[in-house]
Structure prediction request, 565 residues.
Amino acid sequence: MIFMNLDILSYGFMQRALLTGIVVSITCSMIGLFLVLKRYSLFGDALSHVAFGGIALGFFLNVYPIWTAFAVSVSTALGITKLRKSTKISGDAAIAVLLSSGFAMGVLLISASHGFTIDLFSFLFGSILLTSMQDALLIVAVSCGVIVTLVAIRKPLIHFTFDEEQAKVHGIPVEKLNYLFVALAAVTVIATMRLVGILLISALIVLPNITSIMMGKGFKKTMMISISLSVSAVIAGITISYYFNLAPAGTIVMLMVAMFVGTLIAKHVGMFSKTLNENSLSTVN
Amino acid sequence: MVPELTQFENGFRMSVNALDVENVSVSHNGALAINKISFNVQEGDLLGIVGPNGAGKTTLFRAILGLQAYHGKIKLFGYEGSQYTTLLSMIGYVPQKVNFEPNFPATVYDVVAMGILSKKRLMKGAVLIQSCGCSWNRIFSTSSKNHEKIEEALKIVGLESFKDRRISELSGGEQQRTFIAKSLVKEPLLMILDEPVTGVDMDVQNKFYSVLRKINKENKITIVWSSHDLTAISDLATRVACMNRELFFHGEKEEFFANKDMLKTYSESAMQLHMHKHDM
Prediction:
């Protein structure tokens, strides 16, 4: 019954929270599918730790922290991609370097300035309900930019994700595309920080996608399912957290975990395999 | 620069070769993987390349495809440099195994669709091909929509009823046929197939060979194909090249199979490499 009561939509902070939450969840699902399929699932987590260093730098320099987070994350993502290519460092090692160095930088800058502040704490654990109009506009604009770019480059990006060598032979400029992709991933992570916080970003990138991949559909349908799951979890999570006075970030992520576990059980019970068999039979006939 | 058309034979002007490989060498960490290989492929040929494992067949293909640095010259329809790069995207390539993520949520249709080239790129390729006096044997009508091309390519390889299946659900042979369809939708000037049916059963191999024959004979596509299956090579190939880091033979298949010394060399070199690997 409480969900029928739409008075929460009359509050400005809730409108901003839902708007940014929906846009960010769509962006995370879209970029996350490519990250998961490229086996870069933890790349978002590593970038978020670098972003933490960027946020700390902003507080240290007394600059709007989102800008410094953008600058530090994008430049580090591009730098580590270049380093990986020139030194053949493996993906997991590169992620470990990113993760520890980003967080160490943050801790160092915090200790050199005023220690933990409420603002810094909100970046760590998310504060979607405290999103200011300035933050909301920036997040929506950046996310829309990422979505439009991903839609524009979807064909070469799918090919590149499927098989890099084949994409290269096909005439796709894979190196440039890779740099653009990691830059988009870095930007997405910054846009997501307000929603679930630095520590839970990878959940938003990974969970809806591994859940939708299990359903055995084609690429477009998998992405649409992932977006639907993510948006549903964000709307439900914000609503539940409002009525039950819970942390929105934790609620959203736990809903996504529930969706993943539910799908896993359904798959084991045979719900999806049955669908697949039916599809197979219908195509053979 | 347009390639020269100065070759004459019996008074007829000959067009340039589809592929020219001139003194190509590749080394890996100082060791020669292939040494001064030279051969050419004429339009409409189905060149079978034979050689033992480790002979450098894949390395040679990777050099042709621009995936491997090399010394020497490689020309596509007489072109080098940026024009070579333009035509490169019009090569259909099917490797031994495509290493894709097993959970990749792509249907057979999705995978074949990846092969579609933009109209702009096709136009650029067509201009280059016409300029060098060669013919571009298009598989599909010029007015075909992408969807029609995909459906037709799936029909050629006999996978039209599998289009909604996930690629990971298919057998090895079906996957390779999907990758052939992916190569076909780009309307290739040349197809390079690197031991495409290694490790699949005879039935699938035979289906694959009939597809190969069809696209060479009916669609007039030039094919370079490596295989250990000498029976299939003798059935399908128009010309044969035999290599083991160096080129031992390149010519008509009848000449290759009539030469008992050559066949002996091929099997001996295969045996030597096998023993060398075991010694290590």
Residues 274-285 of chain A have pLDDT under 50 and may be disordered.
